[in-house]
């Protein structure tokens, strides 16, 4: 190995290689997710709900497919005795419908008999009194057996979530009531459980000949970076996607803050796709049933207000924000949880009726077609510095969120690749150590808006 040179900033004679495709071609080079969580659909239809564009009921999965959606998310509880839905039989039925419509599926393992979320992670009743070793084994077996059962029916999911909004320790509580404090995470146990789930997905995929992409999911962007830092230190590894819930009602960050988190995450965890896997926005402050709507004024932004058009613009702008910061997509939570005559544990109807993609008659709203809206897709840029025997090089700039990102060695060059919005002006610098970047000369880069291949000097 070449000995490290004295710490210093690199000179301004840095090279930038731009291999840029037009936006349409760039989209084909990467997969972007326009998804919806349709876990409530079977229950709502059993309760009499219908979905349509013009008043004539349509198959809801075909309706979402025609809207441009390319991912359906479905939750799975272990043994939910309190409901006949979101168990394996219900999920199997939903997956068959999704496949018939040509929609890929993200299967969301809650590892609970009830809701697992940012406030609580309830251990399944059957596993509550097991030792950690036994719980690790049970989680592995449940994950593996579920996937192999689905695969036997031609239903291996395209993506799998190992846990849902796992801000707290996975399966960390036996009981919970509103207001209970979140217990400190035992990271040794937490890592064993996560890695068991990840290993089960990979083993099932290897056996089936199709391995789903694996997601880990944390609620609200302000919690994500610290959680993944600790998870990485604890040895959680092998996942492909980082999922974030973003609800204005429950997040301390505005949309710009979310974008900054996405940008830092994709630089901190290269190779991981970042997805806003839960979000929602109300189109009205009205309701038609006795259930109190969860999405009220505290869930709106002044720029969008309460309106169907505002809901659609929110989704468009959120997706564009995600693209601009290097993210891979957005999944809307429960756009079909409309009001019916059925009761939930919270009352008759739906808590979410004003945040669906359908009005109170079941007719589609503009937000249903958010995947078809016009977006500016990122293009790939490559930042190169000649390899002159340096032990390592780092690049930093506004486009890395201020992080010093290690560059990779490739055929006589140190290389940094990034997807950026066409026409964006960037400030970049490189150094042998992160500390040296504070003295490095900044170079302005403009990502072209047209197809081009050029080598530019930043002198």
Automatic annotation (TrEMBL):
Protein's UniProt keywords contain Cytoplasm: no
Pfam families noted in UniProt: Glyco_hydro_53
InterPro entries referenced in this protein's UniProt entry, alphabetically: GH, Glyco_hydro_53
EC number in record: 3.2.1.89
Keyword line: Glycosidase, Hydrolase, Signal
Catalytic activity: The enzyme specifically hydrolyzes (1->4)-beta-D-galactosidic linkages in type I arabinogalactans
Top EC category: hydrolase
Source domain of life: Bacteria
Record flagged with keyword Signal: yes
Signal peptide span: 1-26
UniProt similarity note: Belongs to the glycosyl hydrolase 53 family.
Protein name in the entry: Arabinogalactan endo-beta-1,4-galactanase
